[in-house]
Amino acid sequence: MSAAVETPRNLMTTEASDARSHEKTAVAGLSALAATGLTVGKLIVGLMTGSIAILSEAAHSGLDLLASLITFLAVRVASQPPDELHPYGHQKAENVAAYTEMLFLLGTCTWITIEATKRLLHWHGESVVKLSVWAYAMVAVSICVDWWRSTALMRAARKHSSQALEADALHFRADLWSSCVVLTGLAVMGLGRRFFPHLSPVLDHADSMAALGVVLLVLNAALRLGRRTVNVLLDGAPGSLNATIRDAVEGMEGVIGIRQMRARQVGDKTFVELAIAVCRTASFEVSHDVTQQVSDRIRQLASNADVIVHAHPTQCNHETAASRIRALAESSRVNVHHLTVHEASERLYVDMDIEVEEDQTLGEAHRHVSEFEDLVRGDLPEVAQLNSRIEPRPAPMTEATDVTSDASDIVRTVREVVAQVPGISTCHNIKVREQGDRLFISAHCLCAPTTPVGEAHRAAARVEEKLHAALPSLERVLVHTEPARA
Fold first, then answer.
1. Measured between alpha carbons, how far is 160 from 276 in angstroms, rounded to an integer?
2. C-alpha to C-alpha distance for 103 and 222, rounded to whole angstroms
3. What is the pLDDT of residue 197?
4. Same-domain pairing of 24 and 55
5. Residue 251 maps to a domain
6. Are residue 28 and residue 169 in the same domain, yes or no?
7. CATH number of the domain that residue 86 is part of
8. Low-confidence ranges of the chain (pLDDT < 50)
9. Number of H helices, E strands in the chain
10. Are residues 320 and 339 in contact, defined by beta-carbon separation less than 8 angstroms?
């Protein structure tokens, strides 16, 4: 059963995602309607007045309409959940739409520049622009609508980290400023004809100059949009997020350093992959807790982030010689026990037992042990002497027969040996198991509650030693020490 369907948290996440998608689609749809009205209005007024600036604005608004429709479709596609072919989701559809809108803007700039330049170069002293109240009214209405839509689109874009909506907002914002330029140009022409008729032939250039001003504003918006869009499509790092994550993570407890970090933005989701160095002597559970804490910290820095953290075991400063040897053994898949390290005259003397497969030849086992010893010497140059005892690795599970009830003489021997060892008062729960011709004995022995653990361990070791001497067929004996009740 899928947890994504059953858990309340995932249900809430799905509902929130649907709400975000609905809000983004609604904003894009209203923008398309607004662009339609502006395009039709500017085209009519531009044809009535013959103003190249207003006609260029009509062309610009027409592309705004096309861009808004593309944004509307891109938002709908981006809202689809990830699938087998698109495991990261479909939100880059918004970035593709933004890139397409940038190309439209560049095409608009090219057409306006050509038309304005032709009028400036081939002007014969008679203006073709017919000024009327409709020209001023249309541009004023365009400014109001552009301000309304650009504000709404930018608010939604920032709220949902939508580059497609941001591109649409830049379209309307560029339209807003270009409309202001056009209005200024029309006003200069009107004032010139009314109050400065002798300067009218010169001031009539204001229409074409205003059109070129539109080009500069639109081109600036297009290039800024294009740079950001291409950065996302090429999986560029999202702003200063990498530096922010590095500063936050490197100071966390349990993190030695950062080996690799990658972050990229896909729609409103940030994907972060991080490889951190953790102490190689830490347990798997501790390492997992560290990676979880790092993931939670990154999600605090980047909302709606998809985070993967890898932990790489690394040598840390507080390791002892014994812990370093155990870490090397674990990474080399070598079983080490009874490890002791002594220091004399700033040199180390190491003794240890190494387990190998029981059916392995001595020559092969010695070669493997020697390889591990060389590895230890390379990691610990201060080792003066390294002694290893090769032992057969115990089988994970073997069949044995409990013969305690038929081994009263062995149980009696155990009790007699325990009575000979100082520090142990008595023993109980004696068990004898037999496997072929080999015996396995376990016993629980009582010591005074105030007995130091080291002293209790040595007493148990003396019991085990005496039992091995008394019972030649004894394979293993385990003495469990516990405090005697007062």
1. 30
2. 8
3. 63
4. yes
5. yes
6. yes
7. 1.20.1510.10
8. 1-13, 124-129
9. 14, 10
10. no
